[in-house]
Amino acid sequence: MLKYICFILSLVRLSFAIETDPTATEMVIDDFDYETNLKIQKVWRGVQSEPPDVVKIIRHGYGLKSNAHFSQGIQRVSYDRDIELDLSMYGSFTLDIFLLEPWAFHAFTLYFKSGDGWFGCYSPMAKLGWQRLTFNKLEFHPEGNPDGWHNITGIRLSAWSAQKEDCQFVLDRLLARRSQIAIILPTTKSGCQLKEVETAKKFAQTLSRMFATIGLLSDSVTDHSPSVNLLVRHKYKFVVLPMNPKVSPKLAIALKELIVSGGKILAIYKLDKNVAQLIGVRPTGWVQEENDGQFAEIRFPEQHGFPKSVKQASWNITVAEPIDNRSRVVGIWYDSEGNPSKYPAVIVGKYGAFFSHLILNDDLAQKQQMLAAVVGHFFPNIHQMIAKHLIGNMMRVGHFTDRDKLERFIKRSSKSEATKLLNRAKNIHENAIRNYENGNIASAIEMSGQARDLLSQAYLFSQDNPTVEGRAIWNHSGTGAYPGDWDRSAYELAAAGFNMIFPNMLWAGLAHYASDILPRSWTFDHYGDQISQCVLAARKHGLEVHIWKVNWNLSNAPKSFVETLRQENRLQKSKTNTEILWLCPSHQDNRKLEIDSLIEVTKKYDIDGIHFDYIRYPSSDGCYCDNCRQGFTRSINQKVKNWPANVLKSGEMRKKFIAWRADQITILVKAVSEKAKLTRPNLKISAAVFNDYPYCVQSIGQDWVKWAKLGYVDFLCPMNYTADNDHFSQMVQNHKNILPRNFPVYPGIGATASIFSLPVDQVAAQIYLTRQFGSAGFTIFDYSKNTSNILIPAISKSIGAHRAKIPH
């Protein structure tokens, strides 16, 4: 094996193309060029793993080689080193890795040690050969009590097992990257509320991803970082405030210096008065949506470089106006009926720009052009780089990265419309290149978007339409896409070829239907019985209805309901005895509440199935309450001397506790399955499950393979939420391998499940991949007004153009 891996390394070292922001700078943290095993082992040490080796990479020095003995049952191999770094002004990190057995690996985690804790971020690793893993600083999570990115004292590299199979991997070039764009995150130290801080970070992640789609990297730094006053010294040109209602005095000074040095600011939604004055904007109020669709679209009338319109389903806005002649309105809010409002959406001035609500992750193509126009307004040279990037990546559509393969795929289609769209796209592509070469950058960007949209349509039209396939969609709101009008939603989904809907109708402490067991929701009071309306409409239009329940989770339950449960000691406790707002699964009364609420639904309504969600513990931190201690002690007929230490990660009773804990979840699945089918023998039981089996058994007590093998569920929907098609394929294949033969799986596709929406062609690509691996169908998250506007119409003309029979 060693000779084979060295041979491959010598041939293909980083022969793949690496795309990067040409304005970014890089710092080599470790190039692993140690020449001998002795030298590398003085720096890097194995953590419950054997020491690393070095391997010669022809024409590129050396790399760290690991022997991963996963056949012995270990979960990961890790390597640590000590180092002192200030990474506060870096935005992302990359690591090159070589794999011969990608199926054996679940993911890779990069950790940075700081103080009494760590920052950690994971990346899928699903490709054969060399690949570059990228870790965005915004997506790192703290563990323990880290000091901050300015005080890094160590690194840990961890590869996680997916299969019990011995394998090897090679690491090379760990880099830190810094860009010219800084996203400044608010903190509670500057006077912001914790919820504002959390929201800002979430939407900062969305913004960072959006910048990446137009070829720009972005860094992130908190407003109280020791380095925040060095914006100018670090040569930042563009600072983004994702939602910073207040800024610290230190940051205010740094922003003034930035403006003086030629830098610019993009302020979003909530404005600090000092920032508003800097960019020439005067806040005058705040307006909440009075009716659905009031702030549905932004139009840019005759604004050079901006798209004609951008869809943006906002629910409230900050009202602002230009100060004198220092800025001007370029975008206006429109409602869903196409009527203009009096409210500015985008204001641009000499020193910055203002967007009056959070930048949401819908209508990605137009958002790309809008961001490009804002950046290009201030920095024409960067605008040119954006155009070059978008033109160069125009042919990256669906599951293709190669132009010739994409064209062959489209041309093999029997649909003439697909070929016509392809030819139109190629003509516009050529015009985009000519405009770029002639310096018409805004036109080149606009044309690149048009061409890519046509290619996306051609790709969708080229898809097959199986006659037997489960086509499901989750609906998180429980009201469909149009609250109060389930008939419209059901008609729309049926016309798009869907044959199942999973509406979220009940939680652990809330019901959108006429429940006699759970508190009834505002949705029920305002719109009526949602299950009744949904079932009636679905029957009319030929859809199956599988009622989705969020189990155990009490986050939206009425306070009085939760207080009663609290008094009865029915809530979960963490390992530090902190309350968790979830029902404890081991408590008999909680189990009865979960069973009774679901059986109530099967008795009251003519439904096709019950769909479990959150059918697990919230994390490895729950539950360690007294009821769990007593139940576990009884199950093993043995005293637990030190609770919960004896059942935690290094505890002597850990394995027994993991098994007992998972059984508490399985007991509920089994009980509901058996009782529900007594009421409705043809009822189908299903669940939305974590994709990382078997880790989810240990972390959250979710043993869904066991449920399938014992017949407690009729089909499963693993939540394979990723934008990486190789990773998606790996998960689909792994799930197929570990489940019983021919067991129906409808892989979950996260169209809007994360901080960043998948483009329509990416959703289509993952549907294509489910078919390639022989899945029974697919499930899309989430049916809402946003997906109704863009995704559903696209599917109706292509993948769902013809109805299909449900396989189960």
Strand content: 25-35%
The rough form would be described as globular
Look up the CATH topology of the largest domain: TIM Barrel
Q: Total helix count?
A: 23
Domain tally: 4
Content-based structural category: alpha/beta
Largest sheet: 9 strands, mixed
Strand order of the largest sheet: 14-13-15-16-23-22-21-18-19
Distance between the termini: 44 Å
CATH first level of the largest domain? Alpha Beta
Q: What level of helicity do the residues show?
A: 25-40%
Label the CATH architecture of the largest domain: Alpha-Beta Barrel
* Alpha-carbon Rg, integer: 27 Å
CATH level-four homologous superfamily name of the largest domain: Glycosidases
Outline the low-pLDDT stretches.
Answer: 1-19
Q: What is the averaged pLDDT score?
A: 94
How many strands in all?
A: 33
Structure description:
With 808 residues, the protein is of the alpha/beta class. The protein folds into 4 domains: 2-18 and 27-178, Jelly Rolls (Sandwich); 181-384, 3-Layer(aba) Sandwich (Rossmann fold); 396-461, no CATH class; 470-796, Alpha-Beta Barrel (TIM Barrel). 34% of the residues lie in helices and 26% in strands. The protein is built from 23 helices and 33 strands. The strands form 6 sheets. Strands 14-13-15-16-23-22-21-18-19 form a 9-stranded mixed sheet, sandwiched between helices. Helix 21 links the parallel strand 32 (748-749) and strand 33. Helix 9 (416-437) runs antiparallel to helix 10 (441-461). The longest helix is centred in the C-terminal third of the chain and has 26 residues, at 654-679. The chain is globular. 52% of the residues are buried.
